[in-house]
Amino acid sequence: MVENRPISRYIAHGILIIGVVITFLPIWLAFVASTHPVDRLLNDQMPFWPGDQLLENYGTVLSEGMKKAGGVPVGTMMLNSLIMALAIAIGKIFISFLSAFAIVYFRFPFRRTIFWMIFITLMLPVEVRILPTFEIVANLGMLNSYGGLIIPLIASATATFLFRQFFLTVPDELLEAARIDGAGPMRFLKDILLPLSRTSIAALFVIQFIYGWNQFLWPLLVTTDQSLYTIVMGIRSMITVGDSEPTWHLIMATVILAMLPPVLVVMLMQRQFVKGLVETEK
Amino acid sequence: MAELKLEKVRKNYGQVTAIHQIDLQVKNGEFLVIVGPSGCGKSTLLRMVAGLEAISDGDIYINEKHVNEVEPKDRQIAMVFQNYALYPHMSVFNNMAYGLKIAGLNRSDIQKRVHEVSEILEIKSLLDRKPRQLSGGQRQRVAMGRAIVRNPALFLFDEPLSNLDAKLRVQMRIEIKQLQRRLGITTLYVTHDQVEAMTLADRLLVMNAGIAEQIGTPLEIYEHPQTTFVAGFIGSPPMNLLQCVVNGHQIFLEKQALLGIPPSRNIEKPSVVLGIRPEHLVLDPQGPLNLTIDLVETLGADTLVYAHLGRQRIVARLPDHHKVSLGDQMRFTIPPERANFFDVDSGKKIAAKFS
Ligand SMILES: Nc1ncnc2c1ncn2[C@@H]1O[C@H](COP(=O)(O)OP(=O)(O)OP(=O)(O)O)[C@@H](O)[C@H]1O
Ligand SMILES: [Mg+2]
């Protein structure tokens, strides 16, 4: 696998460089667009190098937002997105950790049935159950609230399943040793299972944070109050502004800003994340 | 300090019976080894004593206290697992201290206790390491440390040495024995290694398929096996078990008259299993047992000679070196006082008749 012939090195690097260019180029263009005045983007050929409007454009979106799109400052939308993504990620981890713990370590009636029921919901993405869910949320009066944004997305079959698989790899003797040492179930959870799951939790956090951050359809349905708009849906409403031309420079600035938190999360948790995916320290 | 008593203990896993019925009494400070082939229920028995496995039937008493329903932590036991089961994310110190912390000891007492024990086990320099930074032998010591620190009344070992290399195993075996003597803690020790069993045990429990075949001191078990299973399990090579025919007052092996029935024995069936240890076969030019040699193993101190007679295989252990070649004829005597007789059907020892 590890060939050190120069030619294969060049090929490998070549492929990687092409991949990087393909993924990075659109982002670069978005960034460039966000630093020009809008007429440069609409009239001339698309510029390839950054312009001089960086501070102005970003200042505008952060403080006032776009008049034509309702004028919600991007800062507010980012805060909403952040609250939603964090609550979903942390809530999902918390709930799935406990459910997986119950399913693996306790014997109760219909344990298998319950596990399979959870597992089957894996096959239903949010979009499929969106109407009934909306109905319920509406009836509970949770439209236009953080609760309505977060709670319907907070249970995760994927995370429950992953935690279950992880718990199954933890040797039984560890539980038995802990029982002899006098640790009850919750103590075992806290002192042994939780530290051992650290890397899996980090990996799940990254995945679920991005999942929460990128939610689009659901926030669009449950919020009509602009002060609850999330950034991803905000971008869309900026693009469809009736008959006037979209203000691309501001939109692109927003897009770049919207990308930052997920990138930050990935970068900060990268080491844990990779460990969580590849390593099984037991 | 503890006495352990098992009364008619059974274990079923659904339809499968893992332990049929075991009665056992372990005295204070005694080292009892449970030995038997894989799957015979050794671990199950140990885990029932530990409280990790429910008891299907029967009673277990520790120090006269009925413990069937008592939680493991309240049984005053400590267990050493085959794979050590150290908490991977905790330092050696914390591994040892965990039980004490839960028990609510204060910091300085915990410190003191852990240091005392790590002194005994010579693992003081390892206290800050994580289990993955330890060698197999060191992990073994830490696992024992974690057990000792709890100051248990009863030690439970489940094949603690089977993951170590041969040399370390011998060394740890000796240390465990010395430690147990020194601490005087009643010990139950599971192994399938008969050398370990013979050397460690004050008394030995030989198990087979969920049954206690025999309980006794290592020597009793070696000299007077009560069943063909025990005879064939203990000893290396194990006891020769020969299917013989009884005719009048003579016992015949493949038409060779081997020996007369000793007057103390009461053999009623027309056939019998004769058990004789390899080292008890005596080389004797006039002996009745005439063997053609198949294979010779020179071990240095003694020589193993393999032969067969009809379909029956026989091994003899001869002291010192012998010049033997394949195909040679050798004659042996079976000293009647060394012979064991077993019932052909039940495999049970045929008792001497005292009348
Ligand atoms: N949880 C279980 N469910 C069903 N059967 C079991 C279970 N645990 C053990 N058994 C059965 O009980 C019997 C005894 O098992 P046990 O683990 O006590 O054997 P052992 O003597 O310790 O063997 P080894 O030397 O291989 O460790 C085996 O036949 C095993 O298949
Ligand atoms: Mg076992």
Characteristic key phrases:
heterodimer; A: 282 residues; mainly alpha; MetI-like fold; 14 helices; 0% strand; B: 355 residues; alpha+beta; Rossmann fold; OB fold (Dihydrolipoamide Acetyltransferase, E2P); 5-stranded antiparallel β-sheet; 25% helix; elongated; binds adenosine-5'-triphosphate; binds magnesium ion
**Estimated share of beta-strand residues of chain B:** 25-35%
Q: Identify the CATH homologous superfamily of chain A.
A: MetI-like
**What is the CATH class designation of chain A?**
Mainly Alpha
User: What is the tally of beta strands of chain A?
Assistant: 0
The CATH architecture assignment of the largest domain in chain B turns out to be 3-Layer(aba) Sandwich
Give the CATH architecture of chain A. Answer: Orthogonal Bundle
The major sheet of chain A is characterized as: none
Largest interface, C-beta closer than 8 angstroms, per-chain residues: A-B, 18 and 25 residues
Number of domains of chain A: 1
Shape call of chain B: elongated
Ligands present: adenosine-5'-triphosphate, magnesium ion
Describe this protein's structure:
- With 282 residues, chain A is mostly helical.
- Chain A has a single domain, classed as MetI-like (MetI-like fold), CATH 1.10.3720.
- Chain A is built from 14 helices and no strands.
- In chain A, helix 4 packs across helix 8 and helix 5 crosses helix 8.
- Chain B is of the alpha+beta class and 355 residues long.
- Chain B has two domains: 229 residues, P-loop containing nucleotide triphosphate hydrolases (Rossmann fold, 3-Layer(aba) Sandwich), CATH 3.40.50.300; 112 residues, Nucleic acid-binding proteins (OB fold (Dihydrolipoamide Acetyltransferase, E2P)).
- Chain B has eight helices and 20 strands.
- In chain B, a hairpin with a 2-residue loop joins strand 4 and strand 5.
- Chain B is elongated, with a radius of gyration of 24 Å.
- Chain B starts with a strand and ends in a 13-residue tail after the last strand.
- The chains are: A mainly alpha (282), B alpha+beta (355).
- Chains A and B meet through helix 9 and helix 10 of A and strand 6 and helix 2 of B.
- Adenosine-5'-triphosphate binds next to strand 2 and helix 1 of chain B.
